[in-house]
Write a structure and sequence with these properties.
By secondary structure, the chain is mostly helical. The chain contains 13 helices and 2 strands; from the N terminus they run αααααααααααβααβ. Helix 3 packs antiparallel against helix 4, helix 7 runs antiparallel to helix 8 and helix 7 runs parallel beside helix 9.
């Protein structure tokens, strides 16, 4: 909420009305959200029915709109409009004062999470429908709201920037999370080096580091190893599931850069994974 010490008497009167109304609105949204959580655990007709029930409790239940968008056919005008509506409802539910107050700390504030999930869903559907510039802009905004990136938006954004040829912005994003030791970050570094200097020593050294981090990626990128039938729900650093998760958004950047021929020459056969103890599995970041 806007600090009252910094507003006029007239503004205070308006803010008091908003505060009173917001209490009632938030109560209705919280009731609807509990139903939406049940819908997230359900499938099929029950999932849709629960989403509808949540919306009956409050039309400002962002996750209920997101469920409807996720259940609608991918790649259609209906689906995109539903994701856009979910984002708009999230902004209306939070209001401009909370949007500003929570900036930089989104996701850590629980009530912002449905909105952040909707933003990610919208970005993915925009990309699916060929609207890459707007998809990129949507994820830029997501990271600005939550630089801690609990959702893993940076991985998707970096891959999309590389796909779009936005090398300078991709390099800046990569540097902003330089401590990241994931396969996605290492293989993005190799691709960035290839874009900067071709198949020279810089790219070779970056690829060597990437292979040491996760040797399974080239086989998937080059089609030597078939991808899993479904996206892995969990993965461990350095394992084949982590490579499969990277493939989902990373492959297009390698194709766009014409880097697959270089990768095939640099890694003539599938690299054998080094022996290592089994690390604790990580859940794939989700919106």
């Amino acid at each position: 909420m806007v600090a009252k010490a910094k507003v006029t008497a007239a503004e205070r009167r308006v803010l008091r009305v908003i505060e009173k109304a917001t209490i009632e609105i938030d109560h209705a949204v919280n009731t609807a959200q509990m139903i939406a959580f049940d819908a997230m655990e359900a499938t099929g007709a029950e999932r849709l029915a629960l989403a509808g029930k949540a919306l009956e409790a409050s039309g400002l239940c962002v996750d209920a709109w997101g469920i409807l968008a996720a259940e609608a056919p991918e790649g259609t005008a209906l689906t995109l409009s539903l994701w856009r509506h979910a984002v708009a409802v999230g902004e209306a539910m939070l209001g401009p004062w909370r949007m500003e107050e929570y900036r930089g700390d989104f996701w850590s504030v629980t009530e912002t999470r449905p909105y952040m999930r909707a933003r990610q869903g919208l970005a993915v559907e925009l990309r699916r429908q060929g609207q890459l510039p707007e998809a990129i802009d949507t994820l830029r905004g997501t990271l600005a709201l939550n630089p801690n990136d609990n959702q893993g938006a940076r991985y998707i954004l970096l891959d999309w920037l590389l796909e779009a040829g936005a090398e300078a912005e991709a390099a800046a994003l990569h540097a902003a999370y330089a401590e990241d030791d994931s396969a996605a970050w290492h293989y993005a570094a190799a691709l960035l080096a290839f874009r900067r200097s071709g198949d020279g020593p810089e790219a070779a050294a970056a690829l060597e580091r990437a292979l040491a981090n996760n040797p399974h990626v080239p086989g998937l990128l080059l089609g030597r190893v078939p991808p899993p039938a479904e996206s892995p729900e969990f993965y461990s650093p350095g394992d084949a599931d982590e490579a499969a998760v990277y493939l989902e958004t990373g492959a297009a950047g390698w194709q766009a850069a014409g880097a697959l021929d270089w990768l095939a020459r640099a890694v003539p056969g599938e690299a054998a994974p080094p022996p290592a103890p089994s690390p604790k599995p990580r859940r794939k970041p989700k919106g």
